[in-house]
Each structure stands twice: as structure tokens, then as C-alpha cells.
Amino acid sequence: MNDEEIYTENIDALRHRISALEKEVERLQVQLPEEYLQKAFDRANDLIIIIQDGKIKYANPMLESFAGYPFEMIKDKEFKDFLPDKIQIELTKNYHARMAGEKVPERYESVLHHRNGREINVEISGHVITYKGKPADFVVIHDITPLKQVIKKLQESEEKYHNFFKASKDCVFFTAPDGKWLDMSDSAPAFFGYNSKEELAAVPVTRLYEKPEERKEDIERIEKEGFSRDIPINLRKKDGSVIHTLVTSQAIRNVKGEVVAYQGVIRDITEQKKNEELLKKSKIHLEETLTARDKFFSIISHDLRTPFNAIIGLSDFLRKEAFKMPPEEIESIAEDLFRTGQETYELLTNLLEWSRTVTGKIPFSPETFAVADLIYDIRNLYHENIQRKEMKFTVSVPPDMLVYADRNMVHTVIRNLVSNAIKFTRLHGTIAVNAKEKNGYAQINVSDTGIGIQPEILNRLFSHGKEVVMKGTLGESGSGLGLILCKEFMERNGGTITVESSPGKGSTFSFTLPRSVI
Q: Which long-range contacts (CB under 8 A, 24 or more apart) does 332-341 make?
């Protein structure tokens, strides 16, 4: 109900009350003597004045409350002398017209001035009666100041509400229980990507929910708690895009307590969510960078220092004792020097590539190439290591299997997997590399008959900050850095890497690469 309706309802009730009072006056004039009428008027809450021949003949005790005058002061005085200048002419004209039998408004609003200067908003009703045998004007004056103050506050409140309703960037809504729009703020169409209120109003509210059942849940929450505040709900715009919002709403009920509408505010927090996600990613990246830094220093201080100490020790021993040693012992030491140097070089290569990856300085240059060529190159690279352990190395990869990836990164992945297979496989073991097509990807498997991996270690193989150090079957060292590098390179190329292993039976590392469309 708006202000005008409230005001009209109150005025209608007042007029009904005055009409009833006037009818009662007419009835009492017939049935009761004037002293009884005066007693009834004296108890009235409205100001009652009887004017005869332009002079005040009677006023009930409410005179002092309305005007600040005792009746004795104004009795038999011209009534116009007590009216403010700005209404004197109008009220005097109405009085004379009414007494002459002319048609004039029976009720009208005006403003009286109290003796102390206070203004009183009133509604005045005039009616011609017979008083002491002569025509007189029976005037009822009702104080409507409280009503005016309430209306003023309502108008101010309504103005603030309308200003908010129009200026708010959030979506302010009024909807029916069945999901139809009843009203919306000016910002609502743009909020959901529509061109006008009419266009948006034609869309049921339930169609705006990414998950329509969430509206039902929100209504149940309102029924239980009376309102819902800042409920995270994903809504869908006209173009189909989803926005993250916070919805605050409550029910509007009729006098029977039945829900007739829902009102509330929807706030778009999509940008806030994006910023939170960026902040979360930045935090994760920072943690990974710090972990990488710690691992980098750990490798430099331990994994690189150890082999260099061995190289320096063995070479120093040869420098001092070689002339005393038989050829076969010199050959053995030289073999150890070569193996240690090769492992150290491999570790250093991985370390440099990994550091460039972490800092984002390694280029990504995908191209089409035959993956079998890389596998044969790497088998040749490790030919001496394979011969040293008298292993069987088989390759079963179609020569025409083309992939689209960064060749250098894939080379690093295969090199690390083959190196690990050699390192952790005993003498006379077997290493097999095969490939197959799977869901548009090339899946390459590197299998060995080595020592396998314990289950508690499997989950840590590809993780930052979870150090995995294992010795090879001939005491070869390993830092676990190569597998971390493999995972990062596979993800960079849109592929995956997984492992299956059984202790004592061997391991199979599988990675996927996008097939080339050429």
C-alpha cells in the first residue's frame, strides 16, 4: 500500500467519523435538550465550535489544546478575528456561503495557529444546525498533524527507496512465488545482459539460475528463518555466461500470513571471485617457487657436491698412484669416473632445465615429429650403460607415429625415463619401449624388469617438496628431480604421465602426447 492509499484510507475513516457525529447531533437536537448536547460535545476529542451571526457561541474544552485560548476569552467574539490572515478570507467565505444555503465543500484541510505559534494541520467540517432557535454553523475540527507527520516520513522513506531503487548497481527485485517478475530496479536488465525491463520480465526467474533447485532451497530457508542473507548462488546471463552472486531476500506476506511476493537484492561478486582465484593461484605459485628454491639449493649442496667429491677423489688417486697400479685397476677406476661424470652431467642438465622451467624462461615450441626417432636417439645415447649391465632394450614404436609437441621437452622426458629404467634394473634385465594410439593421443610406455617402487613412494614421485632419493642397482644416485621435470613438461604439452609399479617386479611409466593431424 503506497502513501496515497494510506492517506486516503485514514481520511475516509475520519470523514465517516465526522458524518456519524453530525448525524448524532441532528438526532440529539430532536430528542434531547441543549444542555445534554453540550455535555456530549464537551467529552469529544475533536474541537467543536458553534458559530452564530459570525460570532463564537460555543467551543468545547479542546479549544485550549487546539488554539491556546480559554472559551471565556473568545465567547461572542467574531470568529474571523482568531483566524490566521492566509486562511481568514477562505474560511469566512465558506461560512457565509454555507449559512446562505449555497453548495460549499463540507470538508477541507487547513492550518490553525496555536497561541504559542505552533501550527496544527486540521481537517474542518461545517454543517448548518439550529442552535437556540436560530441557524448556526456547527464546525468540527480534527487534528491531522500526526497523520501528516507519518505521511511525510513515508514520503521521505519512499523517496530514499526510489533513489536507491533507481541508482543501485545491484539488482533489486520483487518476484511472485511462481517466479514471475513483479518489479525490478533500473539496473536489473543490464545486470543480466538484457536490453530492457520488458525483455527481462518475460524470463521466469527460475531460468536465471544455473541450478534451478537452488531457488527452492532459498525459499525453504526463508520459510524457516524468515529471510536469507548473502547466499552464494550462480546465475546465468542472457548470453549464457555464469556470474557469481550473493542473494539477500525475504518474503512479503498478506494479513493472513500468506506469502504474496519475495523481495531482495542480488550482488555480482564475479570479479571478486576472479581476484580471489588469482590470489589463490599466486599463493600456490609462490609456495611452489619457494619449494623449488629450497630443492634447488638442496641439490646443489648435496646431490651435486657428492659426485664432484667422488670425481675429485678418484682423479687425485689416479694422479698420485696410477704408475703403481695394474692396467685392470686403472680401467675400473676410469669406469667409475666416467659413470659418475655422466650421472653428474645428467643431473646438472636436469637442474638447469628445471630452473628455467620454474622461472618461466624455457621456450615452448611445439612441432610435428616422429616420436620413434627420439627413442632411438636416446637408446644410442645410453648404449654403453645398457651394455655395461648386459640388458635387453627393445623398441616397438611405429615409425610413422607423429606427435605435436615440443621436441626438446619430449627428449628430456624420454631421456629421464630411460635413464631411470637403466639405473634401477639389475644385470641382464629388460627395458621395453612401446607406443599405441589412445583417444587421439599417442601413449608411450617405458617398462623395465627392475626393483620396482614401494607403494608409499609412488604418490610422492611427481610432487614438489616431497624428496624421493633412491639408489640404483649399482649404487647410482638419483634426486627425483627428473620425474618432477617430466610431469611439468607433459602438462606443458597437454599430456599426462602415470606410473604402475610392483616391488621386485619392475615399473611402467606411461606418458601421452597429442597426435599430429598432418
A: 336/310, 337/311, 339/385, 339/476, 340/307, 340/310, 340/311, 340/314, 341/307, 341/311
> What is the rounded average pLDDT for all residues in the chain?
82
What are 51's strand-pairing partners? 56, 137
Q: Yes or no: say if 513 and 495 are a contact pair by the CB < 8 Å rule.
A: yes
Taking the C-alpha atoms of residue 61 and residue 79, their distance in angstroms, rounded to an integer, is: 17
Compute the residue count for the chain: 518
What's the pLDDT at 501?
A: 93
- Which cell is 372 given? 620413434
Q: Where are the beta strands (DSSP E) in 53-208?
A: 55-59, 107-113, 119-131, 134-143, 171-175, 181-184
Question: Is 129 within 8 Å of 138 (Cβ atoms)?
Answer: yes
Taking only the tens place, the pLDDT of each residue in 286-339 is 776 676 666 555 555 545 555 676 677 778 777 788 778 888 888 887 877 777
Could you read off the pLDDT of 132-162 as tens digits, one per residue?
A: 889 999 899 888 888 777 667 766 666 665 6
**For 70, how many CA atoms within 13 A lie in the half-sphere containing its CB?**
2
With 0-12 CB in 10 A as exposed, 13-18 as middle and 19+ as buried, what is 423? Answer: buried
Q: What order of strands is seen across the sheet that includes strand 107-113?
A: 55-59, 47-52, 134-143, 119-131, 107-113
User: Which residues, including other chains, have CB under 8 Å from residue 298's CB and lie 6 or more apart?
Assistant: 467
For the stretch 15-64, pLDDT in tens is 666 666 666 655 554 444 456 566 777 788 889 999 999 999 989 989 88
pLDDT exceeds 70 at position 350: no
Q: Is 230 left (phi over 0), alpha (psi -120 to 50) or beta?
A: left
